[in-house]
């Protein structure tokens, strides 16, 4: 095992913060991972698991063993008349996985094109976009228990998926390392085009016959028009979750803010776009030194360079306080703060 010391995590987080890891190792197989976890030398050392680093805010040097998961491989493990079951290593780039599925005619994840990160991180927060979430196509995942090194399989029910949530962000947080994820995808696409600007974008692209490739391309075009490329401008995508509020609260706010959007999620709850709240509170395009709020999407906090994670964290808390004062709504981060 090649364990390095005092390694910069600059290449491993999309915010682009140059913090150091006390120890660092890249893992390419389950056997390597289990050998590491079973090693007496490292059993008591704190550990931090990193995939694509696209949903993490590093606020200081990491006094731990950073385990970078690079387990690759995509394979079909079962096939039926209408479905195909596909297993992917946790270290596979998520968009690369989506493109693999699109190219092979496996439907179900095309609306999730261009979401940054890895396959292993996807079920942790039940990633979603344009009417689709991981839970819709999820079969099961495999994960190694950090404490014992034992490999365990988790069903969808055991993952307890919620809105940008799973059991791995709650009761099992920091207890398991996901090594592979298996999806049940369709051979007969059921296109979802009624969300966001998809239909309009398809028309602008002059798509005559809808296909997985066309839908994926439309989603990519929309995301590229609204969201900054982390390679050009440091960010972790949506920083906050869209809050859900009681009907009564929404009705009262609607009287004060007639253009307030809302989407029922249950008989008594309404989901409100966090980006709209942040923009209405005056933060869109705000900049303070090396950090700020993106000019085209208020939900995205950005790092212009030479800044520190604490500055993004401070900005996020200012935004939380401002939105709470204006709307009486507390925004919760989607990004994991370390």
From TrEMBL:
Pathway annotation: Cell wall biogenesis; peptidoglycan biosynthesis
Cellular localisation: Cytoplasm
Catalyzed chemical reaction(s): UDP-N-acetyl-alpha-D-muramate + NADP(+) = UDP-N-acetyl-3-O-(1-carboxyvinyl)-alpha-D-glucosamine + NADPH + H(+)
GO cellular component, one term: cytosol
Reported cofactor(s): FAD
Location of the FAD-binding PCMH-type domain: 17-188
EC numbers: 1.3.1.98
GO molecular function annotations of the record: FAD binding; UDP-N-acetylmuramate dehydrogenase activity
Active site: 164, 238 (proton donor), 334
Swiss-Prot/TrEMBL keywords: Cell cycle, Cell division, Cell shape, Cell wall biogenesis/degradation, Cytoplasm, FAD, Flavoprotein, NADP, Oxidoreductase, Peptidoglycan synthesis
Location, primary (coarse class): cytoplasm
Domain of life the protein comes from: Bacteria
GO aspect biological process, one term: peptidoglycan biosynthetic process
Function summary: Cell wall formation.
Record family assignment: Belongs to the MurB family.
UniProt protein name: UDP-N-acetylenolpyruvoylglucosamine reductase
Lineage per the UniProt record: Bacteria, Pseudomonadati, Bacteroidota, Cytophagia, Cytophagales
Encoding gene per record: murB
